[in-house]
Amino acid sequence: MAATEGYGARWMTFLRVEHVDLARKAYETTREQLQPKAGASNHHPLSDESGNPWHQVFEDEPLVREIKTDLDRLYPQGNEMFFQERPELMGILRNVLFVWCKQHPAVSYRQGMHDLVAVLLYAVGGDGEFAEHDVYILFSAIMTSMEPLYTVHRAPVDDTPTPVAPDAEESLFRASAPTKSATPRSPLQTLCQFIQNDLLAKHDPQLACHLQTVAVLPETYCLRWTRLLLAREFLLDDALRVWDAMFAQSFEVSATTPAVGFPLLPYLCVAILIHFSPSLRASDNTGCLQLLMRPAELNAAEIVDSALLLSNPFREASHPDMDLVEFGPGSLGVVLTTAKAPFENRLAVRDFKPTAAGRPGQAEASGSVRIGDLVESVNGVKVYGMTTDDIRKHVALLPRPLVISFLHVTDSIPGEDELDDPPSLSGPLPDFLPGEQCYAHVETSMYQPVFHPPSGSCASHYITGRLFLTNYRCAFVATAGAFAWEMPVLSIASIVAEASIVEPSADLFATSAPTVGLVCKDTQSVRFTFRNHAEYTRMFKCLTVLAYPASLTDAFCFVYRPLVLPSHVLAPFDIRRDYERVGLLRGRFRCIDQAYLLCDTYPRYLVVPAAMPDTKLQVAAAFRSSRRLPAVSWQHPINHAVICRSSQPLVGLKSARCAEDEDLVRLLCAPENPHAVAAYQSYRYVIMDARGQLAAAGNKAMGKGTESTTNYRGAKVVFMNMDNIHAIRNAAQALAAAFDPLSDDNFLAKVEASGWLKHVRLVLRGSWELAEYVHGGVSVLTHCSDGWDRTSQMVSLAELMLDPFYRTLEGFQVLVEKEWCSFGHQFGLRCGHARSDIANEQRSPIFLLWLDCVWQILRQFPTEFELNEAGLLMLADHVYSCKFGNFLFDSEKARLECFKHHAAADVWTELHGQRAKFVNADFAPQRTLLFPSTTWKNIKLWKGYFARFDPTFVPPVPKMQSY
């Protein structure tokens, strides 16, 4: 077997191997020392005498066996029997691996090393006198860079004991160990993550997003690719060409490449991914893994050329008919079209597009782009076969600056008679979202009152345009002008036919055309008129089907697939991380995995007293409405007072009591050191009932009620007089009615009479009192009736006042997910998701009321919140839209069970992805505590939400929406 095209000698140079003769002698000496010879025959294998060479033989036996096992499985692609039929080559492989592993005991032998040595031996040739020596020298040089990828990375062992129930025989729920901070990644994991989540995202972001969406972990395929230097992905002769290019580039150290492996290796991996991009993007998780783990035959020359171009897009600058242009943020300033023959599957520059100020765009200003040029590559990725829509999405996701190469050709632009684009609708179209499908569209007129400030009156006005109905929204686009309107179909509260509309005036409509009115959950009311009854009937039926689907799994969040870079995807929420952050996983508490058996509307992981057996927890849960037993939510970092939440106890008219519940409350709320409470206080902890005393007493007739200080020793019971969901719903409806643009009578009186601001003040005041108790060192148990409405409002607002972390963007996400989503606010029932029963008594804007309270605090402390008003409005809109899965269903359990089978888009990923829009530019936190004023003078109407659709305000209230 002769050396293959001189690769061995060339690689010695590329890998900077010096003094080859000395290295050969050193290898031969080392090999002789490590392999015992005839001397072993003079000793008994079982003798214990010192210096017995058999000891070393036995010690090396596992290593020799492991190497032999892998070599017996060496069947290179396309040359399966090349080594197996040549015993002398197998001996060389065995010797090289054995000597290297003995010289590097910290690494020793790792699976896959035999593939590397096999390629080296194939390149060097096995016939030369120093073939074995040279293979060892090259392998040692390669492993200088590759050794970190073969080193076993062991996570540090944590021996912190996990609190458990006091009596093992009474333990029913698994203890949830504290969540640890992310284990540091090994160099191999770091390289794999870099290839898919960083490098691929910079060159083919749509593929990177797809692999993230279908949950393809980079380690599943990149581990083999990187460890084996792609040896198994190519035929042996092709692998030599790939390695030759890789080693030739080894002296070029890229600042963006991890300091392990070879600089070109990540780009080779990305080139393979891009090569299979169309097939991968059309496959699910299984299909992607099958393709990546067993790829079809690859053209080595194409992959190498692609990798070299990816690593340095400016390589194309040497082409005589090509120019490269670097584009910064903003529009590229070009209009592209499909090129004509002989440039099929290519895109050509059809025209230049000026900036909004009328100046030349980036392409034209560069002076290097001409009309008729072909787009060759973007950031080193060839763009053959792309449509104009494909490249628009592709470029929109790429970070700037980006480099585009243009090939100068002539006669590439088709004439008007050569265009074969399908006919399009006349007029503008809405920008459809990924996963959005248009089911119907029709020409219509939308009623839009025009305000005349001097007279204070509104004139009737209709805007003609086209109404589009999709699986996500109804969107109206005006025929002329920039007017547009949209509303998610699941944010429609009711659809009113013409006969049901009450005319506010006789001349409201200029015609008697069929009319449909939409009453929306965000306070809007709109009307559309149609040309004939057939169009009206079709759109009415389509709207009804879309707004009230048979199943909530038809919601848009389950098909919406925004293109989010993997690096922007947030880790799933884990309530235990917040428990650990506030110190609840230490000391007198323990975290249990109740698996929704103790209470199916609570989070899976609950913090309970370490001294409370699980059997007693079950008894205590049975004594609370909906089994929502007292559980800890937050702990003060200094005085260790806690905020606990629950539902009302089942005391009834006979004033029943439960010793287990009393013990649970005492263990949760009684301070560790009774002397920590001020001496003048007659109580040790507070039970805060959000209801009024009469309302609580009225619940006794239904077998419920509130706690008694006689039974709950050391407790002080206070009532916050907050109204129930029915009063909140009525107040919201009355307030929305006050913003009717056709009526200005007694506006301020209507706002006051609605009672909305009174409810805002009561929630703020109750939350402030809760926070003040806890800040003073007094633990508080708070509840309302079932503990998922007023309780969520008070607990989350109090934590917002006490903990600066919750005022950051990340912390606000944790707060909402913990106190609202995980602790079981009934979003589905309160928001009426996919339900046509608008009169349902269980509907109520509880979460909106809480957001209004947050806005009141934000207004009083404008520099203390990272989230701005636009972010609050975004959440207020999407709690109804069902564009995201966070606010679906009535409990964490129901959501997670659904998400096991139907992946849903995440609102926080979108919010973080648009930080520039939703982050407070004045954010400069200085306070730990925020105690807002709750006097009437400082409770303001949230015009940004309630007045944004009323055209009669001067100046107009910005119509901030994020649909």
Outline:
With 963 residues, the protein is α+β, with helices and mostly antiparallel strands. The chain is built from 33 helices and 23 strands. Helix 1 runs parallel beside helix 10, helix 10 runs parallel beside helix 14 and helix 24 crosses helix 28.
Total strands: the figure is 23
Q: How many independent structural domains?
A: 5
Specify Rg, calculated over alpha carbons.
35 Å
Intertermini distance: 68 Å
Helix content: 25-40%
What average pLDDT do the residues reach? 86
Structural class, please?
alpha+beta
- What are the low-pLDDT stretches, counting only 5+ consecutive residues below 50? 254-258, 419-424, 499-511
Write the layout of secondary structure elements.
Layout: H1 7-14, H2 20-34, H3 53-71, H4 87-103, H5 113-124, H6 131-150, E1 174-175, H7 187-203, H8 205-213, H9 219-227, H10 236-248, H11 265-275, H12 277-281, H13 285-293, H14 300-311, E2 322-327, E3 334-338, E4 347-352, H15 362-366, E5 374-378, E6 381-382, H16 388-397, E7 402-407, E8 438-447, E9 450-452, E10 457-459, E11 462-470, E12 473-478, E13 484-488, E14 492-497, E15 515-520, E16 525-529, H17 533-547, H18 575-581, E17 589-593, E18 605-609, H19 614-622, E19 631-635, E20 642-645, H20 659-669, E21 685-689, H21 693-698, E22 715-719, H22 725-737, H23 747-754, H24 756-775, E23 779-783, H25 790-802, H26 809-822, H27 827-831, H28 846-860, H29 869-881, H30 892-899, H31 907-913, H32 915-918, H33 943-946
